[in-house]
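User: Iron-containing redox enzyme family protein, Streptosporangium saharense:
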Amino acid sequence: MRLPTPRGPVTAAIFERLTRPPHAFDPPSLGVEDDEDLQLALFVCYEVHYQGFEEVDDAWEWEPSLLEVRRTLERWFEEGLARAVPPQKNVEPERLCRALTELVAATEGPPLAAFLERRADPEQFREFVVHRSIYHLKEADPHTWAVPRLRGRAKAALVEIQADEYGGGRRERMHSELFRATMRGLGLDDSYGAYLDRVPAVTLATVNLMSLFGLHRRRRGALLGHLAVLETTSSLPNLKYGRGLRRLGGDATACRFYDEHVLADAVHEQIAVHDMCGGLAAAEPALTGDILYGAACALALDALFAGYVLDRWTGGSTSLREPSLVAGGP
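Assistant: Predicted structure for Iron-containing redox enzyme family protein:
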């Protein structure tokens, strides 16, 4: 993947530095002026810890100057999250699983899955897949950061979930590889990060949230709460996505990613809530509020994303940053 196109003064300043050999520099002024600029800047700062960029030296990963920039961006992001998502109180460890279930049940986001199942046209479905590619092509990686930070029951449960996400050791069954097949079936470029320039800030924020929680040990509770929400809210929407894709002519290979999640996440839901989050709550009761906060953040940003996409589609416009990006596929 190559560096994306800057979206403002913050990304322009950071990207110019990253194309040079690693060096100390004074952090640029990072005023909160444009969400597109700042979310992309944070995404790129995180991505050097994942697959990186062709023109960026890997030694930038731990360069203190870049970490200082990232810390400033993270502070802004966390402040925004705190304004949007109320803090969650600690609960008794034995009440954590029920509290998680109640939190999910009390949150009803925009009906994006129903729209894709029944009404989306081929271009809209391809747009949805483009948005999701920013995460699904690295699926499971952000949550794997938690593995060395856990112990006992919670760690074993997370590893069980992640083993399935990575295909049980078989490359062709890795969820990221299944999603690549979906992209190819829709006539899309399945290379990692191919559509980074096309997705808006709201899409980047959903992925940045995982990296924020994953790359900080202090947020390990929030990361597990986030993963629990992904698992508990996945089966039914993926059933609808699969139906929608079949309605539009998708074959079994293209639909397999969604079919896999209908089955796998129904099992993962119980492991994630009871063994993973319940295990962490029992071992570290002081983290129960953070577990619930991570879950609440996941629900809030997913609802924000769904509302953004539906508003644009029902208004007759593209949900991507460039119109007609994915027109003309099968």
